[in-house]
Design a protein that fits this description.
2 strands, disordered C terminus
Amino acid sequence: MTIEYTGNPEHPLLPARDWWQAVRRGLSLKCPSCGIGKMYRAYLKVNDTCPHCGEELHHHRADDAPPYFTIFIVGHIVVPLVLWVEMAFYPPVWVHMALWLPLATILALTLLPPVKAALIGLQWALRMHGFGEEAEETA
């Protein structure tokens, strides 16, 4: 299977990258290309290149999408739990605050790196934001 890099007919068709595999590798915080090298050099600082295969990773444009997706996921975990505890036990407000604020914070901080790495893996697989430079090099 091939995908077209741009609408420009002068660019050759490139082989498709498995986007699902790239997302899975991102979720495991690994390079979307080789699946071995680490995606991050710090908490949310992406390596400029993969330490194993040398794939350039600095092209990514994750921007605001990872926090939005993380909030969406955390909300879908925490809100049903809050409603269940409220309906089952009717606890005072301070119990809700003591339970859900730390849980939501810990979940958000834990899920943010894999969500960002998965988004970068998807960008790599779809050759977005400079990840498809092979077309210019081979032309």
